[in-house]
Amino acid sequence: MIRVLVAKPGLDGHDRGAKVIARALRDAGMEVVYTGLHQTPEQIVDAALQEDVDVLALSILSGAHPTLVPRIMDLVRENKMDNMLVLLGGIIPDDDVDSMIAAGISRVFGPGTDTQDIVDYIRERVADDD
Amino acid sequence: MTEIQDLVEGIGQGEKRAVARGLTWIERDSEKGKQLVRALFPMAGKAHIVGITGAPGVGKSTLVNRLTLALRNHGYRVGILAVDPSSPFTGGAILGDRIRMQESVMDQGVFMRSLASRGHLGGLSRATFGAVTLLDAAGFDYILIETVGAGQSEVEIMQLAHSTMVVLAPGLGDDIQAIKAGILEIGQIFVVNKADRDGADHTARAIRGMLTLGMQHLEWFPPIIKTVAENGEGMDDLIAAIAKHREFLQESGRLDSIREGQTRHLIELALQDWSLRAMRLAEQDETFWTALREAVAHGQADAADAARKIVESAQRGGATVGS
Ligand code: B12
Ligand SMILES: Nc1nc2c(ncn2[C@@H]2O[C@H](COP(=O)(O)OP(=O)(O)O)[C@@H](O)[C@H]2O)c(=O)[nH]1
Ligand SMILES: [Mg+2]
User: Fold this and answer.
1) Exposure check for chain A: N or C terminus, fewer CB within 10 A?
2) Residue B323: its pLDDT value, please?
3) What is the domain partition of chain B in residue ranges?
């Protein structure tokens, strides 16, 4: 069973995308933990640790990704959770994509993404070991 | 040291990572997970296990959050398991109980895990039993289990919890619903949540009325506690009620019979698993299965005869069925 945490970091109140992703992954047979709005990086990484998820799905539309994402990825490494796949989606300008990848994000998904592409991307990379 | 010994040691020290990984093993129901539960079993037995059940939306998750904060104030360590339903079609699930528990779950003395029911009926998931053993072994003083909350036939929590709390809220016609669903019989503590709303006294009276009808003979008469989970009102009363029920269990010697009941239930579940596997194996053996089915269809044997044949056949091929 593939387990995913869908998280909304920071003060961003745009949650439609996160909910669309959560439902799509559920419909694809995954278990999706959703923690709601306004999560700090510490809360997100702690939840991912306790829930032992295979995938961390971050949705950010506020423009705060340059500060939030590196902080989250530092905590991920501090907690030795390097096996976890970390995806980012929302409003991420093209110019920022490289720095997000450099910070440890596996891939960035922007507006208009077909959720099936996200499902396929996860399935190709995460072993469904039961 | 082996992988399992490593994990057992980490869990014994209450390390979050070890606890989280152990729970994943148990959820996978792999041989490793089974070995882990066996290894942890002797370390468990100290925690007080509290079940929280009631219809969706009555405020169970919010209550767990507040109760956890209050228990932490008393210095207790708290483990939380919250079960949500899996889709019967895709097997997927959205696990949203954590949303309401954000204030309490960051604490080092708290561990919270969301579980999907994975097809198990009765309000829990199969892994919940092993998960409780793990949290108990990890030294949590209280283990709170929020059930699916489908409202009906969620009686399995009785087999697992020491104290089962039935949560209701005014204005949902819940009093009647709960009575219909037979949920009143399983409550050792009743909580009327959302007491900030009109009708809480009415709901409390309705519960009291139903309880006094059938339960005068009981040694434990369930208390009815009014709470506002949103702001924490009533948590001291609730903790006192749980403590009192725990004392009652200890003094009346019932803890032992609860433990026996848990073991019995686990054996029953394993037996169900085994018989389902036997059924699958029989179905895979086309000749055997067709013969059985035809015999029943033509009245040469009844379903019970067929079932007996399946069990016998499974015993002969025991190695494959019994794994
Ligand atoms: C709807 C909307 C709102 C609604 C939000 C309702 C809600 N509950 O979500 C309301 C009206 C409340 C709102 C308010 C604001 N908004 Co607004 N909003 C939008 C709008 C028009 C659409 C967003 C949306 O819901 N899209 C539909 C969903 C399904 O798409 P999505 O989130 O992009 O998700 C898809 C992909 O991005 C991806 N995806 C998303 N997350 C993830 C995560 C992972 C892991 C993966 C794999 C994929 C993935 O998959 C999804 C499916 O394809 C956008 C403009 C736009 N075209 O995007 C502006 C926009 C996001 N808003 C903006 C702004 C500025 C605001 C406000 C600050 C405006 C104000 N001054 O008050 C406020 C802030 C509110 C707050 N508290 O944060 C800006 C953000 C600018 C920026 N980042 O630099 C935008 C881009 C508009 C703009 N062009 O200026 N907004
Ligand atoms: N008015 C009021 N609302 C509450 C109270 N407790 C919970 N709620 C709200 O009831 C809704 C459902 O709560 P939740 O804890 O998710 O219920 P659950 O489905 O039983 O776990 C949420 O919107 C809560 O904010 C309360 O004491 N008073
Ligand atoms: Mg809930």
Assistant:
1) C
2) 38
3) 3-252, 263-315
